[in-house]
Structures are given as C-alpha cells and as structure tokens.
TrEMBL record:
PANTHER family attached to this UniProt entry: DNA-BINDING PROTEIN-RELATED, HEAT SHOCK TRANSCRIPTION FACTOR
Stored Pfam families: HSF_DNA-bind
UniProt keywords, alphabetically: DNA-binding, Nucleus, Stress response
Keyword Nucleus in record: yes
Domain HSF-type DNA-binding: 8-102
Molecular function terms from GO: DNA binding
Transferase in keyword set: no
Protein localization: Nucleus
Taxonomy, superkingdom: Eukaryota
Protein name as catalogued: HSF-type DNA-binding domain-containing protein
Organism of origin: Eruca vesicaria subsp. sativa
C-alpha cells in the first residue's frame, strides 16, 4: 500500500517524510525503532547529498532550528540525532496535516500567505 502525502503542506514535511521513508537512504536517515521519530545516522552524508539543503545552511544548529520551527523535537537521551513529533508516524503521512496546521497557526495568516507565495514561486523555478 502506497502512503500518499497530502497536498498543500509545507515542502519540508514531504521532503523529511519521503527521505525517512526511503529505504535506500537508511544508512543516512531512517525511522527509529518506535516508528514515530527519525534518526540522522550520517550527518556528513546528509550534508554531502544536500537532502535538506533547501531548508538550512549546512550548520547543525540551523538544521535543529528549522526542524524545531516545523514542530519536530529533538529526542534527548537517545545518544543519536533523533527527532520526532506525535504526528510524524511511519505509514501515516496524513498526520502531517496536523503538523502543518500548527505551523500555520503559529505563523499567522499574513505570514502564511507570503510563505505559500514563496513556495509556489520556488516550485516554478525548479
């Protein structure tokens, strides 16, 4: 069964979900054993392949800030780079809509409209 990511979400949600869900990237980024978070296994290779390059400037604190802004929390004590959200669950991409809604509420309507316009423009230029 193919899990479809809902349309209209901020691009970061689909990029993170698809990257984590891609078995060919498991040596770089993968689902945690609990299937409700992800682990960055090889940060150097993540940077080298520019998987998230569109969202941060290759500095680790920038990546953490971006993930936090979009609702991911660093899971402390895991001993590795692990991030999660109750609505980021393997096999349940429809839950990403909840994460998206929380970001929109945090941004406010005017900022959201600017972000949507910027995202649409960026898609056109790709």
């Amino acid at each position: 069964m193919v899990n479809k990511i809902p349309k209209g979400l901020f691009r970061i949600f689909s990029v993170v979900y698809e990257s984590v869900d891609d078995p060919s990237l498991d040596s770089i980024i993968s689902w945690s054993q609990s299937n409700n978070s992800f682990v960055i296994v090889n940060l150097e290779e993540l940077n080298h392949r520019k998987i998230f390059a569109r969202f941060y400037s290759r500095h680790l604190p920038d990546l953490f800030s971006v993930l936090e802004y979009y609702g991911f929390e660093r899971i402390k004590g895991a001993g590795e780079l692990e991030f999660g959200n109750v609505n980021f669950v393997r096999g349940r991409p429809e839950l990403l809509e909840r994460m998206h809604s929380r970001v929109v509420a945090k941004m406010g309507n005017a900022a959201y409209q600017r972000k949507q316009a910027a995202d649409a423009f960026q898609r056109l230029s790709i």
